[in-house]
UniProtKB/TrEMBL annotation:
It comes from Flavobacterium terrae. Keywords: Metal-binding, Zinc. PANTHER family: DNA-3-METHYLADENINE GLYCOSYLASE 1, DNA-3-METHYLADENINE GLYCOSYLASE I. GO terms for molecular function: DNA-3-methyladenine glycosylase activity; metal ion binding. Zn(2+) binds at C6, H19, H177, C181. It holds the Pfam family Adenine_glyco. GO terms for biological process: base-excision repair. InterPro entries: Adenine_glyco, DNA-3mA_glycosylase, DNA_glycosylase, Tag. SUPFAM superfamilies: DNA-glycosylase. It comes from the Bacteria. This is DNA-3-methyladenine glycosylase I.
Amino acid sequence: MEKKRCGWCEKDDLYRNYHDEEWGNPVYDDETIFEFLVLETFQAGLSWYTILAKRENFRKAFDNFDYRKVAAYDQAKMETLKEDAGIIRNGLKIKATVTNAQAFIKVQEEFGTFSKYIWGFVGGKPIDNQPKNLKDVAATSEISDKLSKDLKKRGFKFVGSTVVYAHMQATGMVNDHVEDCWKRNQ
């Protein structure tokens, strides 16, 4: 019998596998949180599918999402990235990724881990929104508004409330699997 899934992921196996194996699973390690932050930053204004299809290219281009290395990128490295056809060649997003890596490290220094900081906005455990269908899934929330504002105050770029909410969904800070999705109560 075919698994019932959230309707947005039925485009192909890339999307279905992402949904089944990653989306909405709580992530507490800083490395993976940073990876999703980079990907969500580049997704701003584009489809998530576009980013997912280029994920391995992003991984190679950004040193396996090593935020320590990314934080040290100089102008020459950023110019090289702008020439990389395998990723989204947006200079502002590339610069924002470097800036965000630097801010990420500052948050770690203040809180011990970035995970402790970001999960503090949801009390350390996922918020279950229990959407019945895709129409019930929000694009933002009061918490994503608050987190977005705090990230911006800390120097992060391309972290509007919609981007932040998508990050919260991806990293399992919120559970937005619809009622009849097999992952709903996993």
